[in-house]
Amino acid sequence: MTVGLFIPCYIDQFYPNAAIATLNLLSKLGITVKYPVNQTCCGQPMANSGFEHLTKGCNELFVDNFAEFDYIVSPSGSCVLHIKDHLHSEGHEGKAKSIRKKIYELTEFLTDIVKVEKLEARFPHKVGVHQSCHGQRGLMMSQMTELVAPFYSKPLQLLNMVQDLELINLNRPDECCGFGGTFCVAEEAVSAKMGKDRVADHLNNGAEYITAADMSCLMHMEGILRRQESGVKVIHIAEILNSEG
Amino acid sequence: MKDHAQLSDTFNADEARVNWHDETLWFVRAKRDKAAHGLPEWELLRSTASQIKDNVLSNLHDYLIEFESNAQKNGIEVHWAADAKAHNAIVAGILKAEGIDQIVKSKSMLTEECHLNEHLQHSGIEVIDTDLGERIVQLAKEPPSHIVLPCIHKKKEEIGELFHEHLGTPEGMADPVFLTAAAREHLREKFITRKAAITGVNFAVAETGEFVVCTNEGNADMGAHLADVHIACMGIEKLVPLREHLSVFLRLLARSATGQPITTYSSHFKKPRPGQKMHIVLVDNGRSTQLGREDFRNSLKCIRCGACMNTCPVYRRSGGHSYHTAIAGPIGSILAPNLDMKEYADLPFASTLCGSCTNVCPVKINIHEQLYKWRQVIVKEGYADTKKAIAMKAMEFTLSKPALYRTAGKTGRWVLKYIPFAVNNKMNLWYNQREMPLSPKQSFGEWYKENVKND
Q1: Chain A to chain B, count of Cβ pairs less than 8 Å apart?
Q2: In this complex, do B409 and A12 lie within 8 Å of one another by their Cβ atoms?
Q3: Does residue A118 lie in a domain region?
Q4: What is the pTM (predicted TM-score) of this model?
Q5: Beta-carbon separation of A20 and B355 below 8 A
Q6: Domain span at residue A29?
Q7: DSSP-H helix ranges across B317-437
Q8: In this complex, do A227 and B435 lie within 8 Å of one another by their Cβ atoms?
Q9: A136, A202: one domain
């Protein structure tokens, strides 16, 4: 099995450690991982702003870079959801369709395809889990509080394998952090307020770290934590799962 | 005209008030969750309701004709209004013909949508809203901020001040029980003396020609039972084919709206009392246009429970008035652009697309997907901000060229300029309340090149 590693643009530029942890974690599990160096972005920032018609270049590039792999894995639920829902190609629709089916967010890939049952990881800290909306409600990585349906959570299933990690409970387990792509500047007041409220829930419940399967939410909450000069840190779930403590 | 972002900015100037507003509505969401989780068949109810409404929308013409014919047999006069203007003219015409210039009205979001009160007042007809929340916003000369909880944005102290000014309650009195009693006394006199009552319609049953009005205060009943003329105004999408379908919708409506098992009053109106006149106004006002928009037609399934507002993290922190339309929140943001794409071009963008609205919707409207689709339509129709369009094109230019992307990244973390700051290239909107991400020494791409051998 060869996995194509899709590292979204902002992770590539700002959070290389999340990407490195993803690569190392997959390699540790015996998976052959390749990173196509010509990748850029999934096109979501344009599409969510109403400019989906401008994403053709990004789409073709994505198809060129990733069509050959058995699976495509990415440490970002939001970007994966965008590809699953919106990747199309004028010349290679067959390839685009196949990519839409074989792309996975990292944690769902680990639980559903690799079927990981144990991890050699240790993270002796109190951790709050942020449920990123696109991963949760879009990719259905975990059950949603709105629905009357049995509980499950792919990220928690993995975090529970990490030694000495203490999960904290939140008052609102799956409320949005307010990032929302260009929403964070177009609706600055509401976006920042949502971010402050989300961070406060983690702080009030004693988190030392806030983790998520989506770095964009964490980037937003990190911006708020650092402005508040808080000692609490954000960390991508791949870094915890890959951590040797 | 201020847009949603500007109006929200004003709302957020008082953070303590935003916290109060957010927590008040979250409490309602929590009550909804408790009520929903009390029914193991909840998700089945939702899909059943959704399917019944699919059938209604696909056969709307036939059900409307069937309803009209049955209502007429019951002795109800049926009127058809193509738009808000026609609706208002019909209502004013009925009242003028009866020589009535003072009326009571129970809650009807349709009449808010059509701005009926203003129209009647201009025609010299006084309207008293009898729903307590609506009476409060009417005294305050404001529109409702929520379709189920019209004055949810007002604190009890502010209501006390309004009542002191208008109803003569003691200054500084803010006890809800006392204020409610004062309102009841004030409204009782109106119910007894007004000769005509307007109500909304929650459900109209095609097979019987009856309609159902749901309230917690019984004010629709007080109005309609005491008046010589009852005018019920309804959007054409309010139909259900069979009476038994109410057993699905009445179980969903109040649980979704407030967490109650059912509204205190679910009153069936089928025919006028002897000597009473009963009218129904069937209103289109853009609904058949929406029905023709494939991506947006199932927004017409909405039963106006308000659950999407209570759960919406943006609505809770921006307030209903920031949507500058009769129906606020996520559902309003997919309904309003159908009525005026230019005026409401901002609303589909007033969302993070988190999807919680879609999950609470009792008739399973894919609200967040429709918000995304409206964004595409609004941009294509040319209602997007020009600066945003230029930024998006610049972004596309770089992102579709890997070599350019890598150089741009190296020369100062290109992303800093564009993601998520693409809207105006000024970083200060992020920086207002948030620190910028730190720039690492190397991008992942650079690290990979140095550390991993790729064959």
Answers
A1: 241
A2: yes
A3: no
A4: 0.95
A5: no
A6: 2-113
A7: 329-339, 356-360, 367-380, 386-399, 402-410, 415-418, 428-431
A8: yes
A9: yes
**Pair type for strands A103-105 and A71-74:** parallel
A19/B contact by beta carbon, under 8 A = yes
CATH number at residue A197: 3.40.50
Q: Domain B39-285: give its CATH code.
A: 3.40.50.10420
Tell me the shortest Cα–Cα distance from A70 to chain B, in angstroms.
17
Three-state SS at B392: helix
The reply to whether A119 falls in a domain is no
Contact B375, A48 (CB under 8 A): yes
User: What is the distance between the alpha carbons of residues B208 and B204, in angstroms, rounded to a whole number?
Assistant: 9
**In chain B, where the domains are located:** 39-285, 386-451
Out of A113, A141, A161, a domain closes at A113
Q: Which of B352, B380, B442 to mutate to test the interface with A (most CBs of A within 10 A)?
A: B352
Task: Please count the structural domains in chain A.
Answer: 2
* Beta carbons within 8 Å of B160's beta carbon, 6+ residues apart: B169, B172, B173, B174, B179
Residues A103 and A144 occupy one common structural domain: no
Are residues A103 and A30 part of one domain?
Answer: yes
Could you tell me if residue A82 is inside a domain? yes
Phi, psi of B281 (to 5 degrees): -110, 115
pLDDT per residue of chain B (455 residues) written in tens, 0 to 9: 899 999 999 999 999 999 999 999 999 999 999 999 999 999 999 999 999 999 999 999 999 999 999 999 999 999 999 999 999 999 999 999 999 999 999 999 999 999 999 999 999 999 999 999 999 999 999 999 999 999 999 999 999 999 999 999 999 999 999 999 999 999 999 999 999 999 999 999 999 999 999 999 999 999 999 999 999 999 999 999 999 999 999 999 999 999 999 999 999 999 999 999 999 999 999 999 999 999 999 999 999 999 999 999 999 999 999 999 999 999 999 999 999 999 999 999 999 999 999 999 999 999 999 999 999 999 999 998 777 788 788 878 888 888 887 777 665 455 555 554 444 445 568 888 998 888 888 999 999 999 997 65
